[in-house]
Amino acid sequence: MEPVKIGLLGLGTVGGGSVTVLTRNADEIARRAGRAIQITHAAARQYDPERIEGLEQIGRISDDAFAVVDDLAVEIVIELIGGYSPARELVLKAIENGKHVVTANKALIAMHGNEIFAAAQAKGVMVGFEAAVAGGIPIIKAVREGLAANRIEWIAGIINGTGNFILTEMRDKGRDFADVLAEAQRLGYAEADPTFDVEGIDAAHKLTILASLAFGIPLQFDKTFTEGISKIEPQDVAFAAELGYRIKHLGITRRTAAGIEMRVHPTLIPHRRLIANVDGVMNAVLVKGDAVGPTLYYGAGAGALPTASAVVADVVDLVRALTTDPTNRVPHLAFQPGELADTPVLPIDAVETAYYLRITALDRPGVMASIAGILSEEGISIEAIKQKEPAEGETTVPLILLTHRIEEAAMNRAIARIEAFDGVSGKVVRIRMEGLEG
Amino acid sequence: MEPVKIGLLGLGTVGGGSVTVLTRNADEIARRAGRAIQITHAAARQYDPERIEGLEQIGRISDDAFAVVDDLAVEIVIELIGGYSPARELVLKAIENGKHVVTANKALIAMHGNEIFAAAQAKGVMVGFEAAVAGGIPIIKAVREGLAANRIEWIAGIINGTGNFILTEMRDKGRDFADVLAEAQRLGYAEADPTFDVEGIDAAHKLTILASLAFGIPLQFDKTFTEGISKIEPQDVAFAAELGYRIKHLGITRRTAAGIEMRVHPTLIPHRRLIANVDGVMNAVLVKGDAVGPTLYYGAGAGALPTASAVVADVVDLVRALTTDPTNRVPHLAFQPGELADTPVLPIDAVETAYYLRITALDRPGVMASIAGILSEEGISIEAIKQKEPAEGETTVPLILLTHRIEEAAMNRAIARIEAFDGVSGKVVRIRMEGLEG
Predict the structure, then answer these.
(1) ipTM of the complex
(2) Which of A21, A309, A316, A329 to probe the B interface (max B CBs under 10 A)?
(3) 8 Å CB contact between A160 and A202
(4) Which residues form the domain of B187?
(5) Is residue A151 domain-shared with residue A269, that is, in the same domain?
(6) How far apart are CA A40 and CA A33, in angstroms?
(7) A228 is in an annotated binding site
(8) Matching InterPro entries, A to Z (chains A, B) (predicted)?
(9) Is residue A344 part of a domain?
(10) Tens of pLDDT along B256-289?
(11) Residues 109-168, chain B: which have Cβ within 8 Å of A?
């Protein structure tokens, strides 16, 4: 049988990695897929031919991406350019031309996925995006197919390797954020502009996708709450550890009676949870289904070859889809297109979590009682208190509180009152806390 | 559209769980699958109608399993009877009748899978067996589809929850094997006859399946080496911990230049590995692919609802397969049926691992030197030595050695010589050791 003809957009890290994987493992992939897979046409603005193993297998390389999506011979287009534009236009054009698409572009799917999937559905083609979430971990397939029998209750994931590397180093070595970030940049784990990673935007893109797959709702990136890790201080990492917790930058989506939570923020989690021990640049996603209970998926969330692993797995899936009935396939967002729900996404004010609070209290009698009184009046129960001795010559003392679950709006009111109280100095540090229990 | 009609064989733990999941999550499953799924015909020798939520949805229940597989209206048969016979005959008959099959029967697939898949292939039907390995963890889908781009290097899994519960209790509480086994039996985690679980036969069934999926070889249960955990002593658990290791009962399959290893045995692994922290009845499978690196999959490996989660996910997959091109599907063993390889399976003598050795040495000068000499002569390098002080009045002392990797045949020769040496008392305790490094 003829090889399946692939058009490739982008020859950067993941593009180059995909060429390498398709070349290096060509025999084994063909033994699995039932057909050889060949990149016949690629486009890239710039690339380094010396650095890409297998580049010589590509039939034709130019800088004209639209020529690839218009190439009549191409059956599957792999989009690895990244960003919103022209990725969106290229993907829509490929679909219009009746081609299947594979993309690793989380920003594109989170922002324009609804439009892209509708176009693909109308045209009877498929869009694979396994590589868009957690790199090489086949988490989209797990949630969409592997857990299809479950009513999913929640998902919590370490889905940004840069952030996890920084938090791991802060914990292991007691270093501060800026110092570790600079090292991550030197090592190539963080971009020159680290905003997307450390402020949680990249994780929010991925979480948006996971929430839609889990709960059958349209993609709603604009409703995902995002808080970064740039304000985490070494002392909070250390206090959390003393209390038996680790701070991880989690993407969390949960179904409640009132609606769906979608949020990315630093989170204290018990150190005995398996996901609390996922360190360095690794990713992991914990999924709670009503039948299966908790399941966890762990692996490399980025990098040339791990991401290419997911890209090429999607290609193998699509090779099989070439002859399937277009009306009976795995739906893009796990639920049939006509079956998406309009369940509301909850604003962060309506989210209920437990909290870690660090309060700089004046070292005088009655302060703790006043703070406890404010919390009590707002309906907040205290689970644990840790009061440090004041340092020599200091008039303030850090007071650490862990609370039970409470709606964020109530916590905001309590924090405003505590900050206004004259027994307290400066701002209250608040980090959300989750038990992640089965 | 008409509901898909299911025939169900067996209403025990997993059968009852599958009825419950299909009933409880009927709406959500139909929104995913695109069609409602209905059990129209079930057979069971005996069952407890009070204990099965959703039993009333089943059209007809009798004790005649062959009537179910011969029922013209049934499109998919779920086999949850277990054992070899009549499960084999029922599955083959269902296939002959043109029905798709889902089974959780690891023994059946490991022993008769080659025959069953060939029959299914010839008939153009599919056999789903996700539930046969690691219960609710979608590990078969991950290896077969999610990692399809990779040349898989090795897999190591905790794939028997009973054994993992026992080893976890032995470590946490310092208890001995027989004591914990009795408790596991009381808790319902272990069968009255625990042989299948504690001697590694159940794990070997599952490992046989994973090896075929990973390396594209026919199922060869008879070539899987199996060693149980019944001889593990609390002192070895404790010595391992002092050296920074945990003992887990692992199924390991690895591709080497000489062939494929398939082995189930107690294994020392570094305590910092994520899989070393998988405790209690939970399962986890670590897969090393050449592109993706290490990935890990964790969840409940048994139980009514977790196993039903995998069974019903297979049903949802098959609902989509009802209209697919039979010549272009995901192959049962990940590789196309004509593309399985005859790579040899290595005998345990040819397997290379590191070792933990516990030697009961006489407390006199020169014994250590003699043992080190024997090891050296057999080409075995020592990585670490731990010598305990002799207890008051004792004339022997436990000597713990960790070795570098060496072929098992050489280790067998060395152990025979050490046991024959008059500076040593009794048998040498030998536990294999793996780094499970990325």
Answers:
(1) 0.97
(2) A309
(3) yes
(4) 139-300
(5) yes
(6) 18
(7) no
(8) ACT-like_dom_sf, ACT_dom, Asp/hSer_DH_NAD-bd, HDH, HDH_cat, HDH_CS, NAD(P)-bd_dom_sf
(9) no
(10) 999 999 999 999 999 999 999 999 999 999 999 9
(11) 130, 136-138, 141-142, 145-151
